[in-house]
Amino acid sequence: MIPKFPTTIVEAKIYQEGIAKKIILSDSFLKSSIVGAFDIAYKENTAFAAGVIYDCSTKSVIEEKVISDRVEFPYVPNYLFLREVPHFLTLLDRIVNIPDIMIIDGHGIAHPRTAGSASIFGIIANIPSIGVAKKPMKFFSYKETNQDNLDEVYLNQNRVGFRYKFEKKWNPIYISPGHKISFESSYNITKGLLTSKHKLPIPQQLAHLLAAKYKKTII
DNA sequence: GCGACAG
DNA sequence: ATCTTGTCGC
Asked: Torsion over CA of A151, A153, A154 and A158, rounded to 10 degrees?
């Protein structure tokens, strides 16, 4: 069941503020062995959303699903959720193995209203979620940690996530809690899925490739 | 008016 | 995100 979404930026801003109040930043899951990731590729006015459900204990993919759908909203900075989250929810409806944790391509609470698309997805789907983004938002500031290659991301005076560079050769990734998960688990789970082969955590990398591949199969 | 801006 | 081949580097 897909809820109604705001249709204007003004409504969306109010919606984000409402979502922000509901976010839980503590671990609300019993296990985290099944991790899913969603990503979307675009071709003109069509979105190709891909989901990969990954079993961390056996290090294997247990489910893959793709859907294509009409793009309903343009990309507007800070309002990515309007463009992407509806497709994620449609995809989730088709998925059999509901994951313990979801990785969403984009930011979680690392957002001007602490309501990035990963948080909004997490609240609506009621699934613990992590936002993993490839680019920072312009107003982030950073604070070093005692760990190499790991910085805390700050927005105003608040910690909102991490900047982490797993391998020197790549740009860093930006990890922030989405919903029903702590900062520490967001970081640990994401880090546990990184390899020296790719910049992104395994399920997210696979979802990215699957979406791109699916797009290419369509004329 | 111009450039920047999660994807 | 997308338009795009080979190519440099790990």
From this structure: -100
Q: What domains are defined for chain A?
A: 9-215 (3.30.2170.10)
Residue A22 Cβ < 7 Å to strand B: no
Phi, psi of A71 (to 5 degrees): -75, 125
**What is the nearest nucleotide to A132, using C1' and CA?**
B6
Among A156, A166, A89, A167, which Cα is nearest to A129's? Answer: A89
3-state SS, residue A58: coil
Q: Per residue in A178-206, pLDDT tens?
A: 999 999 999 999 999 999 889 999 999 99
Quote the DSSP letter at residue A45. Answer: T
Protein CA at A184 to nucleotide C1' at C7, angstroms: 39
pTM of this structure: 0.94
Instruction: Tokens for A95, please give them.
Output: 């998925």
Round to a whole number and report the distance in Å from the CA of A163 to the C1' of B5. 19
Nucleotides of B under 7 A from a protein CB: 4-7
What gap in Å lies between CA A211 and CA A175, rounded to an integer? 21
